[in-house]
Model the fold of this input.
Amino acid sequence: MASHRRPKQPSRTRVTVLTATAAAAVALSAQSASADPQPSKTDVKTKVDKLHEEAEQATEKYNGAKEKQEKLEKQVGELQDKVARGQEELNKLRDGLGSMATAQYRSGSIDPTLQLLLSSDPDSYLEKASTLNQLSAKQADTLQQIAAKQRTLRQERAEATGKLADLESTRKALGERKSEVQGKLGEARDLLNTLTAKERAEVLGESDSAGKDGAKGGTDGSRAGRSESRPDLGKSLPTSQRAGGALSAAQSKIGSPYVWGATGPNSFDCSGLTSWAYAQAGVTLPRISQDQANAGTRIYDQGSLKPGDLVIFYGDLHHVGLYAGNGQVLHAPRSGTNVRYEPMSNMPFQFGVRVG
Done:
């Protein structure tokens, strides 16, 4: 007969060791799975460059919406003033007609056409009254003026209402663009904070070594390697006094910080710098880079560029600077940098613009 023995139970010590080992293995596995690898400086630079480019695109959209808002606010204000003046003129005309009616009533010979004052539809009443022969020349003229003024006021009120609706839509778009810019810049800032101070300077092209490389000209097509020091600009001369004046004005702002949406005189974004510089030379440029791209004669051959010409970069034309000579552009690069020189080869050149 076979004997049945109870299996031997593991000792308490053995259970404790096994449990601790398993727990440690699970903890290490979880830690390994949850810990993201630290991004390299190259990875951070690539992501930061992309975020800053997207932020600059959004900045130019913001600038366009802000410019539209300012124009609409001016138009709405002018229309509202016009409506107010028109209503005042209409009230005076009605008061004058009322005075005539009062005088006729007192003399017992009120003109039936003056019932216009009690009509809710003066235009319709005027058509009927025009068949009467009892209108005096002065009364007829006043009635015509009232009807015309009311038609004008209706049109102006409708136009003002439309402009107000457009203004509200523009303000909403402005807020969206502002949030987009701030979001992109926030992401870039968080990435840069994973680096050391020296690495951040290198990524932003602000280190001494990057500045020296930038003066010579970069070859990696990146936004690093830029310089605030004066590189060799060659001996090419501006084509006009205004172009030379604009470049000189921009050169006086080297080292000023890039601030999105800024138009000077202490900080700038890319199109803010070019528009401010040309304003100092007596030339008014459009606010945004896409419009500045149409502010003069386009030059597609880089060899034909002259100092002071605008230079447009990227396929959607969202970046602009001033040609400084010898393949160098003077511009406000992006958030976290200052106005400075840079080799044009660092960005995708589209064309130049010679401001007329």
User: Anything to note?
Assistant: Residues 218 and 346 are 6 Å apart (CA to CA). Strands lie at 296-299, 310-313, 319-325, 328-331, 340-343, 349-355. The longest strand covers residues 319-325. The radius of gyration is 36 Å.
